Every structure is written in C-alpha cells, then in structure tokens.
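User: tokens in, sequence out, please.
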C-alpha cells in the first residue's frame, strides 16, 4: 500500500469537504488515501493499517502502540506490547471481529444527520456499512450513488451516476465550481 496515491475521486471528496465543512467520510478502506488527498473528517469503520495496537487491548480498546519505537525482530514475529509484553498488531478489523464501537456510532450518527449521502464505488453488501444509505434515507437524506455497476444501494439511490467515481466525482466538483 505504501506506493498507492489518491485517485481523482479521493481528491474530489477532499474538495467537497472544503466546500462543505460539516461533511464526513465513512470508509471501510484501511489505507490513508483520504488523508493524503486532504480529507480531515474520516470515520474509519475498519481501522487503519498505519496504526498499531496491543492484540489484547491491555489498556482499553484500542490500546494504540507506537511500533516505530519498538524493535521488531522479523524472525521472532510481531513486536511485544510495551505495556503487557504480548503481541502488537495492525489496528484493523479482521474477518470475524466487531467494528470499533465509537466508529460505528459516529457513522450511524453521520448517516442520521446528513442531508445528502454520497455512496462511492461499493457493492453495498458488507454490513453494517451497507446499511448507512438506508439510515440516511430513513432520516430524509437524498442518496447519490457513484458506481459504474448496479449495486445493492442502487434501488434506494435518488440518483445513480453510472460511471467510475474517479470520473464522475471530479465532474460534480467542476459543476459546483462553475456555479
């Protein structure tokens, strides 16, 4: 992931956030491409690959650990937690794990309070993230989907922009700038 760079959709979302300061991004991505593009208000449902934590959350959930301060012997496995001596791992949600409650609560609150929800390039099947457009819709928001293919979200979308987000989102920003 290190060489990955934000695509035009990431950049467009950051531009929209500057225009609409209360905008929040709910993401399942574990990379930092939204941050690289300039977004500030990011709700990370699946964590961040660039953060590390104690495998056992010995000091609360999550017990974040600065791995750069720990000597990692690649032959002996993950570094030890400086607090309890057990393993350190990436601060991401692995299959079968629960989502971070604070991030899930923040996402549900954002979905409940938004006027417009942009749904960008998702299949709409991974729960509970896939439920967020439905939450927004139930609370009166308009749902705009950016996706080249039909998804599970398309039936609830007020507008479906059937194109790659890297093409369609920058055009939305251009249209707003032209106003």
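Assistant: Sequence out:
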């Amino acid at each position: 992931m290190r060489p990955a760079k934000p695509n035009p959709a990431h950049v467009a979302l950051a531009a929209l956030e500057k225009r609409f300061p209360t905008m929040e991004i709910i993401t399942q991505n574990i990379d930092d491409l939204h941050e690289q593009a300039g977004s500030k208000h990011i709700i990370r449902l699946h964590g961040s690959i660039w953060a590390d934590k104690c495998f056992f959350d010995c000091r609360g959930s999550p017990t974040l650990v600065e791995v750069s301060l720990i000597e990692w012997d690649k032959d002996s496995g993950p570094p030890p937690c400086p607090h309890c001596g057990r393993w350190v791992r990436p601060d991401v949600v692995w299959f079968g794990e629960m989502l971070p409650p604070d991030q899930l609560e923040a996402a549900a609150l954002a979905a409940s309070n938004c006027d417009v929800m942009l749904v960008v390039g998702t299949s709409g099947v991974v729960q509970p993230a896939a439920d967020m457009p439905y939450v927004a819709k139930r609370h009166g928001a308009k749902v705009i989907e950016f996706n080249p293919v039909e998804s599970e979200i398309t039936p609830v979308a007020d507008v479906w922009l059937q194109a790659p987000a890297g093409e369609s989102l920058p055009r939305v920003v251009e249209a707003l700038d032209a106003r």
